[in-house]
Design a protein that fits this description.
Its main location: membrane. The chain is mainly α. Helices cover 69% and strands 0% of the residues. The chain has helices spanning 2-26, 31-56, 73-98, 107-139, 170-173, 175-199, 207-232, 237-260, 266-271. The chain is flat and about 70 Å long.
Amino acid sequence: MEYAHRMWGRALGVLFVLPYSYFLRKGYITVKLGVRLCGLFGLGAGQGFIGWWMVKSGLEEPPSEYVQPRVSPYRLAAHLTSAFAIYCGLFWTALSVVMPEPPAESLAWVRGAAKVKRLALPISLLVGLTAISGAFVAGNDAGHAFNTFPKMGDTWIPDDIFEMTPLIRNFFENTSTVQLDHRILATASLVSIGILWLSTRKLDIHPAVRALIGGTLGMASLQVTLGVSTLLSYVPVSLGSAHQAGALTLLSFMILLNHTTRKPSLSLLKSLPAVVKSHNL
């Protein structure tokens, strides 16, 4: 798996450079898009160095023959964060090429989209933070700390969540605290997306935006279900991988929602009617 992961990462670099060179030579890439793509390629190259930096932390001799070598949870989280950042940049760039203007057929829908955006942006950050906290769960093997839900063992809050010193270490290295943090963040993400759905039900917004909000709520519910199922099943690789893929899918929904509700260009705004006529719906 390690070898396949490395080869896959290197192949992605080749799959990026070859078409980029072809489209650049053909003149299909603007200066602005070219600079952005070069930046994303640079981040991709840096991801390889972050990956090696992470792996290097697991090459140290374990303290005993009974201890399994593990990489640093901090470096694992950095590697995952970098991967998600590159993906977000690529996805946003692709959406901007395919959809240079957001779906806006009236000023009323533009105002509605702006209200959705004010809620969607902080929720997106919360979803991203939840995904990153999952890296610390994996890095500390915290998924095996408490395989019960909604309680953690026989209690709601374990007694040892603040046993490490200094206090800040508990949030990143204490297995009980790390799992509790992830549970709280996941629950907060689901509740926040539910609030987003409820608060926008009566807003005058584009049907595509409304459908996206509903899809995001459905994906968030599925992701929480996957997380609980993974926990109760003692973290099998199949469910763990599905849960990680679910995190990326949910983040994709949030990126798409933010992209769809962004402000239109000034020229488009000037051409929009106040409201959409009924026969256009």
